[in-house]
Every structure is written in C-alpha cells, then in structure tokens.
Amino acid sequence: MPLVKPFRGLRPATARAADVAAPPYDVLSTDEARGRAAGKPWSFLHISKPEIDLPADTDPYAPAVYAKAVENLEKMMQAGILHRDGQPSYYAYRLEMGAHVQTGFVAAASVAAYDAGRIKKHEFTRPDKEDDRVRQIDALNAQTGPVLLAYPASPAADALLAKVSRGDTAAEVTADDGIRHTIWVVDDEATIAAITAAFEAMPALYIADGHHRSAAASRVATARRKPELEQASDYFLAVIFPHHQMKIMDYNRVVKDLNGLTADDFLARVAAAYAVTPARGQVKPSCPGEVGLYLGGGRWYRLNIDPKLFVSDPVARLDVSLLSDHVLGPVLGIADLRRDKRIDFVGGIRGLGELERRVDSGEMAAAFAMHPTSLKDLMAVADAGQVMPPKSTWFEPKLADGLVSHVLD
Questions:
Q1: End-to-end CA distance of the chain
Q2: In angstroms, rounded to a whole number, what is the distance separating the alpha carbons of residues 252 and 282?
Q3: How is residue 399 annotated by DSSP?
Q4: pTM over 0.90
Q5: What is the CB neighbour count within 10 angstroms for residue 22?
Q6: Secondary structure class of 306 (helix, strand, coil)
C-alpha cells in the first residue's frame, strides 16, 4: 500500500463552505458548540457534535447521538450542501493566521503505515476517547475529523504544494476567530502520481495532533479488513504540512496550591534546579530552559534551568519534562499530570493574561509560562519510539471540520 493516496472527498458546495466549516469537535464543549451552531443549520457541528440537536441532558456518547449525526449528514447531502467528488483527488489546504501561513496536502494516509510505525506517534491515547471516535466513524461510514500530520524536509513535495495551491479554489472561509481556510482540488493524474511518489520517498510522517482519530481509524480498519482486498477503511483522513511551516505554541501550566509551602519557601525549593530572577512584567520564555513563573499580585519571576540538569534523552530534555521532574513532582507533589486535579493546562493562544487571571482570581496559586516545544523535538521523540508528557504541544492554527471528509466505501 502507498503511504498516502488520493480519495473522493466529501466537501461543501463552494458557495456553502462558510456555512459548513466548523471548529474541530474536540476544542468546544457541548454548550459552546450549541451556541456556535445556533441559527446555522448547515454547520458541521451538527455532525461532529450532534448532541447539540438533542435534549440538554443527553449523554454525548449515547447511541442516539451517533444516529443523529447520520441523520444530519444525510440531510446535508440530500440538500446539496455536501457533495462527493467523482474521482479520487488530493487537495491543498492553506491556513492563514495573521502573518503565519502554512499549506499542506489533504490525503488518505495508510493505516498499515501507522500500524508499522512509519506514521509516527508521540502520545498515549485514552480508551474512552478512542471508543467515541470508533463509534462515530462506524456510524457515519466516514472520517470527518482530519489527523494533523507533518512531513520531513522534501523539496519535491514543497514544489508540488506550490504548484497546486494557486488558481481556482474549492473553498475560501474566514472563520469567527479570523483564521482563513482555503482549499484547492488536485485532480490532474500526472500531478497526483507525482504527489504519491514524493510521499513514498519519505522515511516517515509524524502525527502532530489527532492521536485518538488515527488510533480509532486503525481499529475500524482492523474490524473491516478483508484479506487481499484494499478498502477505503485501510486509510485515514489526514492533512499533511511541511514540518518547517507548522507552528507550535506554548502549553502552560497552572496549579491550585503550593503543596503547603509559603511563596518564599516555594521559591527557595525551585532555586535548587532553576536560577530565580524577579521580573518587572510578564515573562514569555525566549529560549529552551527558561520558564515564566507567576505567583499573583503582579509577581513574575524568570526561571532558568541549571545547565547541569540538561540531558540528552529526547523526552527528559523537554522543558515540560524538566519542570515536572524538578518542580511539579518533587516540590508540589504533582506526579500524574493526567489525573491530578491540582493542575490544569492553558493553551498559549490565550496569552499570558489568562495565566494572570487564573491566579489573581484565587482559583490557582501559581502559573508556569513555558517555551514552546519544537517540531524538531517532537520528531526526535517519535523517532525514538517514546511518548511526550501530557499537554506538551498546542498547535495553531487549527484545522476546520467539514471542508473535506473521507467516506469509507
């Protein structure tokens, strides 16, 4: 099987793209989705968060929710809001957030390559979230949430991207958050063959976001597999960007208490691993090894890790690991970032003002502003077959749901 292949995308009619495009299903609560979809009957949220069309107390994992998604999908197809392309195609997808621009390929990515480790992961998944995606894929007979992938340096793929991301567009949408989404259809046979060959020459692809979606796709493929017969379910929906274009933002930490320590005692304990310097204003780390600490009342500190504590291990050297290993665990007693209720995480898109707000409100006792993890570090972890700590990466801008879906027949 090829690493990636073209497919017959299910997508909005060009004039309806703005009505359909929606935030990813997993970045909105049910209440937020209900508000976003109000007065928008063709919003893809009616498919990706179908509980918004059911009573408010509906369990989002109830069978009725998946059935409602099917009903809403069929309604949108019958109304001509969504249509399926007649021939297998690749698609180019451009995201624009202010001055930041990234352009990638929409493709069907090989489940076999994922299972074999050629499409590399760097996170653990939760069974309940995997189960939800499996049920959603099975009910819709489609993958509607793309997996975000990165490809390593490839001048050939970059040149092809530049070629196909111009001319007539299939969708142009500026979302409520100001992010611009543009889609081009790539249906020329020679160009399709060149794209497939460019990816086949790559050693690996890397999952940036979408570990639950890819794991669920693998489970669906296993359940549906027929020996010696390739099926649509042997591939999963992916948007693949050049790694050098992708933007990782900081993923910051806030904690509810100082584990019984006074602020002065806490700072003294932190000083065993970090040089602690009071700062006059917000501290946005400018390099690896640097952390901003906020203790409320305008008190910011710049923390710089002791150089002797840097290690070569691709996971242990991450800033999020160093903070956990030298402060969160031994000083604050927070050992399990997945389950400990004393810690929360704030995506960098919300800014440092959100960290100040959480602490100054009394909800939290301290906030840690982190330096973003790099794509190079992510790829090193994946290449080593290791797993990052929870909440290590926050990718922006986010892909939209609904602009291209992958039907499994």
A1: 17
A2: 14
A3: P
A4: yes
A5: 25
A6: coil
